[in-house]
């Protein structure tokens, strides 16, 4: 029995020493210390041995098992260290292989168009103004000539942020008009792009979160002709060509008179899906700033006049890229966003 133990030890250690990889070590483990391996066979043979030999063989087999397991672990560590050393020395490194690809993101189409709109208005001497998205009811409504009980509040389903209805998620960018009048002295020209929120039924043209661009110009003898000229100039820059506009009377509490401004459909001559076969596309609400609003902003309406306008940034992007559903913008679907 002594011979069989020694023979197994020599054979196992020789195979471990010459193992070229981890796979070869696994084979040694399987053949010697695994189920049905040499050590297991030796242990299984003990009951058939003379009682005097049994103790020594059992002890020897267990020692052998320990010895082989340790030798395999040591050889495995040596093989791994050699592999690391080979990588460090640069062997097998091919400098001509392409690097790991870096995936590039892109700007959201709303961000791109907002920046473009800002650039156009900056070139016309406008400043960019900003205001809070959680706004005081006072600024979102009251100072814009919309008192607490005004029926036009029903036109805008509002997310209120507190039980007293003093804080709202702004339903429009118009409160920035008041904040601007409180901080700047006329004459001034500002646009205020930003997110607005409405608690309304969502469909292809309505979303709880959307984007507006507010415009406000206040100075001496500012008139409606300036408003039309400004918006025509903007549209020419944005669409790259002249587009006819038309004014229709429109009601907004913070302007007097108020207008809806439509643009000639940029996509057709005689009617298409975008313009619902009318050749006109609704573009923005506008008008001369109501004297009450000027007063609320601390500006004397007997000395100064102003015009204001507000258009949907989402709509502008939808017109540019012929996108048919506003919900794509905030939907977070990468398949949509990766197209830009
Ligand atoms: Zn059309």
Notes on the structure:
With 340 residues, the chain is α+β, with helices and mostly antiparallel strands. The protein has two domains: 2-88, no CATH class; 109-337, Bira Bifunctional Protein, Domain 2 (BirA Bifunctional Protein, domain 2). 41% of the residues lie in helices and 18% in strands. The chain has twelve helices and nine strands. It has a seven-stranded mixed beta sheet, with helices on both faces. A two-stranded antiparallel ribbon has the order 2-3. β6 (245-249) and β7 form a beta hairpin. α1 packs antiparallel against α2 and α3 packs antiparallel against α4. The longest helix is centred in the first third of the chain and has 38 residues, at 51-88. The two termini are 78 Å apart. The mean pLDDT is 91. The structure holds zinc ion. Zinc ion (ZN) binds next to loops.
Mean pLDDT: 91
Give the uncertain stretches in residue-range form. Answer: none
The Rg value, from CA coordinates, equals 40 Å
Give the strand order of the largest sheet, numbering strands 1, 2, ... along the chain: 1-4-5-9-8-7-6
Strand content: 15-25%
What is the name of the CATH class of the largest domain?
Answer: Alpha Beta
User: Mind telling me which CATH architecture of the largest domain this is?
Assistant: 2-Layer Sandwich
Q: Count the domains.
A: 2
Q: Assign a percent range to the helix content.
A: 40-55%
């Amino acid at each position: 029995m002594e011979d069989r133990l020694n023979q197994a030890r020599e054979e196992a250690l020789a195979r471990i020493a010459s193992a070229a990889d981890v796979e070869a070590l696994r084979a040694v483990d399987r053949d010697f210390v695994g189920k049905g391996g040499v050590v297991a066979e030796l242990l299984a043979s003990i009951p058939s041995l003379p009682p005097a030999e049994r103790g020594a063989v059992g002890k020897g087999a267990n020692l052998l098992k320990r010895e082989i397991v340790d030798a395999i672990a040591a050889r495995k560590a040596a093989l791994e260290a050699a592999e690391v050393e080979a990588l460090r020395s640069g062997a097998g490194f091919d400098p001509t292989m392409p690097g790991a690809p870096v995936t590039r993101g892109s700007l959201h189409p709303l961000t791109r168009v907002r920046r473009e709109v800002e650039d156009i208005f900056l070139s016309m001497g406008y400043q960019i103004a900003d205001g809070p998205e959680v706004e005081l009811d006072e600024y979102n409504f009251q100072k814009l000539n919309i008192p607490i009980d005004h029926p036009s509040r029903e036109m805008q389903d509002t997310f209120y942020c507190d039980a007293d209805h003093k804080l709202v998620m702004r339903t429009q960018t118009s409160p920035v008009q008041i904040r601007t009048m409180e901080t700047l002295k006329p004459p001034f020209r500002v646009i205020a792009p930003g997110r607005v929120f409405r608690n309304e039924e969502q469909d292809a043209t309505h979303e709880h979160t959307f984007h507006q661009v507010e415009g406000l110009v206040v100075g001496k003898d500012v008139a409606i002709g300036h408003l039309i000229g400004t918006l025509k100039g903007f549209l020419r820059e944005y669409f790259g060509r002249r587009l006819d506009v038309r004014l229709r009377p429109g009601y907004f509490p913070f302007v007097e008179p108020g207008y809806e401004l439509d643009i000639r459909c940029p996509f057709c001559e005689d009617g298409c899906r975008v313009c619902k076969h009318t050749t006109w596309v609704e573009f923005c609400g506008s008008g001369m700033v109501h004297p009450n609003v000027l007063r609320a902003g601390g500006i004397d309406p007997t000395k100064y006049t102003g015009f204001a306008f507000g258009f949907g940034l989402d709509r502008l992007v939808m017109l540019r890229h012929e996108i048919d559903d506003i919900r794509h913008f905030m939907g977070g679907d990468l398949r949509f966003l990766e197209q830009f």
